[in-house]
């Protein structure tokens, strides 16, 4: 009986140890893309955590959730699809921000004028963000911020050929920071977001994009047909008037 108990305990410890080994890589990856900075001044404290959603981070996040919840392959793909759809990676560069405030409240409105992303030596404003960042923060708040993925004039992918990206926050958001800017820098030279769109989730996202594109093209087609009808009507009116004039 004692031998069975010892063997059972050994088995449990082996499972725990194995789980810890598997958990470590996930934790290391997740921490690599999560950066935290803390500031304090005369009773005011603020902790800011910024998370860059790299392909490596997303894959680790999804796999960790799958392992924690014992998901099937189909459930994993569904979760990945929903996450990628929310992140809108094919159009934006998403970053999650978390603020933990102690002391005086933090006011960041208008938030769109307080945060920027530097890519290739150029600074970009967010195209969308959690509207709660515009309201007073007295304890804790987290939410998403989305930056443009493509150059507005050339249509070029901003991340193509970029070695790093830098998130910048205005120091004016808190007395604890004051005039100093807050920077978070990530090395993205080896990041490959395209690999996220393989498999079922990628196929579903591509179908979503094609449906949106088809709807846009059909709207443009309808507008062009309407314009063509208007031109044909005007041409017919002009030709009819010209015939009347010729008969006079």
End-to-end C-alpha gap = 120 Å
CATH architecture of the largest domain: Sandwich
Largest beta-sheet characterization: 5 strands, antiparallel
Strand order of the largest sheet: 1-2-3-7-6
| Level-1 CATH class name of the largest domain | Mainly Beta
Low-confidence stretches: 1-24
Number of structural domains = 3
Structural class: alpha+beta
* SSE string: HEEHHEEEEEEEH
Query: Overall 3D geometry?
Result: extended
Mean pLDDT: 86
Binned, the helix content reads 40-55%
Number of helices: 4
Question: Could you please describe the fold and organization of this structure?
Answer:
This protein is α+β, with helices and mostly antiparallel strands and 248 residues long. The protein folds into 3 domains: 1-29; 33-197, Immunoglobulin-like, CATH 2.60.40; 199-248. The chain is 44% helix and 24% strand. The protein has 4 helices and 9 strands. The protein has helices at 2-32, 55-69, 73-87, 199-247, and strands spanning 34-41, 44-52, 92-102, 115-119, 122-124, 128-129, 140-148, 164-169, 182-187. The strands form 2 sheets. Strands 1-2-3-7-6 form a 5-stranded antiparallel beta sheet. A 4-stranded antiparallel beta sheet has the order 5-4-8-9, with no helix packed on it. The model is unreliable at 1-24 (pLDDT under 50).
């Amino acid at each position: 009986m004692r031998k069975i108990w010892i063997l059972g305990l050994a088995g449990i410890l082996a499972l725990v140890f194995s789980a810890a080994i598997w958990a470590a890589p996930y934790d290391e990856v997740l921490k690599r893309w999560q950066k935290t900075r803390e500031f304090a001044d005369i009773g005011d404290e603020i902790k800011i955590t910024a998370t860059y959603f790299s392909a490596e981070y997303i894959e680790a996040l999804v796999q960790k959730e799958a392992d924690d919840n014992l998901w099937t392959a189909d459930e994993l793909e569904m979760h990945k699809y929903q996450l990628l759809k929310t992140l809108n990676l094919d159009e934006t560069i998403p970053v999650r921000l978390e603020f933990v405030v102690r002391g005086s409240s933090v006011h960041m409105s208008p938030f769109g004028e307080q945060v920027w992303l530097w890519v290739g030596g150029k600074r970009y404003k967010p195209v969308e963000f959690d509207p709660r960042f515009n309201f007073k923060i007295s304890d804790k708040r987290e939410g998403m911020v989305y930056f443009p993925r493509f150059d507005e004039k050339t249509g070029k992918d901003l991340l193509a050929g970029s070695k790093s990206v830098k998130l910048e926050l205005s120091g004016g958001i808190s007395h604890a920071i004051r005039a100093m800017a807050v920077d978070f820098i990530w090395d993205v030279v080896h990041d490959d977001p395209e690999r996220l769109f393989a498999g079922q989730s990628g196929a579903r996202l591509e179908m979503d994009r094609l449906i949106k594109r088809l709807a846009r093209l059909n709207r443009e087609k309808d507008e062009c047909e309407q314009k063509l009808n208007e031109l044909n009507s005007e041409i017919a009116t002009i030709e009819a008037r010209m015939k009347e004039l010729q008969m006079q």
